C-alpha cells in the first residue's frame, strides 16, 4: 500500500501539492467558453486609446467570488473528479462478480453527487438509482442521465433517512462521502437504511479513509482539470482536528479560469473520523451486514488487505445477510 493519499479520493486520482494532476481525459464538450466569447471580452480598439501597451498587458481578468458550497457547482465538481473513474468501475464490478450471492443488475449510490459512476453503470446496462442532499447535483445527474436516454433516477434525500421502493442488488459509496455524516448515530442510521435498501446476498461497497494510530500528515492536495477554455484548480486542506468530537475540518477552494474572467469559491466541511475499531463497531451495529472482504484505495481485487491500526484507506465489501 502506498501513503495515505487524498482524504477524499485516494491515491489513484490524486497527488500531493506541488505536482498538480492534470486530467487529460476531459472531453471538450459542455463548456460555453468558446473562442467567440474570447473575442467579446477583448478590449476594443476604442478602449485602448490613450493606454500604454504595458497597461493593457497587465489588465487582469475580473474575479468573481462564488457564493454557496462546492457541491452547488456540479459542473465544476464533475470536471475535476468525474473523468477518471475506470479503476473504481472495474473494481466495483469485480466485487459484484466475486462477492455477491445474487446476480447484480440493480445498483444504488447513496450521496451520488453528479452521478459520475451512475451514468457509467447505466451505459453498461445496469439499472441505476441514487440519492443526494444537494438539489443542484441531483439536477445535473438527472439531466445527464436523460441526455443519454436513461430515466432520471436520482432523488434528493438524506443518506441516513431514506427508503427505496424495492431493494437493489448492490450499492456503493466509494470516496469518503459517508464521512460527511458528522455524528456516529447518523452513520449508524445510514447503515440501517442501507441494510433495508440492499436485498439479501447483495453488497454494499463502502470506501473511506481511517485515522490511523500513527499520525498521517496528508494536509493539503491539489487537482487541476481543463475542458475547452474552462480550467479549474482545486485545493483541499485540513484546517482543524477535534479529536473529542471525532471531527476533521477541511477547506476547499475552486479557482476557475474562463476566457471572460476568474471565479473563486472557498468552502468548508467536516468529516467524522474513524479508527479501525470505530469503523468495525459501526458495521457490527447493524447485524444484517457481514464483511465479505476488505481492500484499500488501490482498488485491486487481487490484493485484499488485513486491517490493523496503521490502515489508512479502506474499502469494505459488505454483504447483506440472508
Ligand atoms: C465527495 S461528493 C461524492 C459524490 C459521488 N458519490 C462521487 O463519487 O462523485 C459527496 C456528496 O455527498 C453528498 N452528501 C453529503 N451529506 C449527505 C447526506 N446526508 N445525504 C446524502 N448526500 C449527502 C454531497 O451533497 C455530495 O454530493
> Can you summarize the main beta sheet?
7 strands, mixed
Oligomeric form: single chain
CATH architecture of the domain at 1-26 and 60-99 and 164-322: 3-Layer(aba) Sandwich
Number of helices: 9
Q: If you compute it from the alpha carbons, what radius of gyration comes out, rounded to the nearest whole angstrom?
A: 21 Å
Residue stretches low in confidence (pLDDT < 50, at least 5 long) are 1-51
Strand coverage percent: 25-35%
Mean pLDDT: 84
SSE arrangement, N to C: EEHHHEHHEHEHEEHEEEEEHEE
Named CATH topology of the domain at 1-26 and 60-99 and 164-322: Rossmann fold
Structural class: alpha/beta
CATH C-level label of the domain at 1-26 and 60-99 and 164-322: Alpha Beta
Bound compounds, please?
Answer: S-adenosylmethionine
| Shape assignment | globular
Helix content: 25-40%
Instruction: Report the count of strand segments.
Output: 14
N- to C-terminal distance: 33 Å
Overall description:
With 322 residues, the chain is an alpha/beta fold. It has a domain at 1-26 and 60-99 and 164-322: Rossmann fold, CATH 3.40.50. The protein has helices spanning 35-41, 45-48, 53-57, 74-81, 86-99, 116-123, 135-147, 184-197, 276-284; strands spanning 15-16, 21-23, 63-65, 106-110, 127-132, 154-156, 168-173, 198-209, 220-227, 230-242, 247-258, 261-272, 289-295, 313-320. Strands 1, 2, 3, 9, 10, 11 and 12 form a seven-stranded mixed β-sheet that branches. Strand 11 and strand 12 (261-272) form a beta hairpin. The two termini are 33 Å apart. The structure holds S-adenosylmethionine. S-adenosylmethionine (SAM) is lined by residues 8, 71, 81, 109, 111-113, 116-117, 131-134, 137, 158-160, 174-175, 177, 180-181.
Amino acid at each position: 500500500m502506498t501513503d495515505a493519499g487524498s482524504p477524499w479520493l485516494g491515491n489513484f486520482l490524486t497527488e500531493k501539492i506541488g505536482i498538480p494532476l492534470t486530467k487529460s481525459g476531459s472531453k471538450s464538450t459542455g463548456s460555453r467558453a468558446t473562442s467567440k466569447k474570447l473575442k467579446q471580452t477583448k478590449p476594443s480598439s476604442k478602449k485602448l486609446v490613450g493606454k500604454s501597451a504595458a497597461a493593457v498587458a497587465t489588465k487582469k481578468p475580473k474575479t468573481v467570488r462564488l457564493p454557496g458550497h462546492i457541491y452547488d457547482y456540479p459542473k465544476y465538481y464533475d470536471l475535476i473528479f468525474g473523468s477518471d473513474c475506470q479503476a473504481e468501475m472495474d473494481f466495483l464490478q469485480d466485487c459484484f462478480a466475486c462477492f455477491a450471492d445474487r446476480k447484480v443488475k440493480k445498483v444504488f449510490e447513496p450521496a451520488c453527487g453528479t452521478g459520475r459512476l451512475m451514468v457509467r453503470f447505466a451505459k453498461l446496462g445496469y439499472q441505476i438509482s441514487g440519492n443526494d442532499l444537494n438539489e443542484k447535483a441531483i439536477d445535473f445527474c438527472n439531466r445527464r442521465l436523460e441526455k443519454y436516454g436513461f430515466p432520471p433516477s436520482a432523488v434528493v434525500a438524506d443518506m441516513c433517512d431514506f427508503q427505496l421502493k424495492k431493494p437493489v442488488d448492490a450499492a456503493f459509496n466509494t470516496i469518503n462521502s459517508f464521512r460527511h455524516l458528522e455524528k456516529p448515530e447518523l452513520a449508524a442510521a445510514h447503515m440501517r437504511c442501507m441494510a433495508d435498501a440492499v436485498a439479501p446476498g447483495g453488497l454494499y461497497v463502502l470506501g473511506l479513509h481511517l485515522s490511523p494510530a500513527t499520525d498521517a500528515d496528508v494536509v493539503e492536495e491539489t487537482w487541476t482539470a481543463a475542458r475547452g477554455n474552462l480550467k479549474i484548480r482545486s485545493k483541499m486542506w485540513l484546517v482543524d482536528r477535534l479529536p473529542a468530537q471525532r471531527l476533521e475540518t477541511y477547506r476547499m477552494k475552486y479557482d476557475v479560469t474562463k476566457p471572460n474572467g476568474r471565479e473563486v469559491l472557498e468552502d468548508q466541511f467536516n468529516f467524522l473520523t474513524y479508527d479501525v475499531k470505530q469503523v468495525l463497531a459501526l458495521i457490527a451495529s447493524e447485524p444484517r451486514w457481514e464483511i465479505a472482504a476488505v481492500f484499500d484505495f488501490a482498488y485491486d481485487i487481487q490484493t485484499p488487505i488485513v486491517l490493523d491500526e496503521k490502515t489508512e484507506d479502506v474499502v469494505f465489501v459488505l454483504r447483506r445477510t440472508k
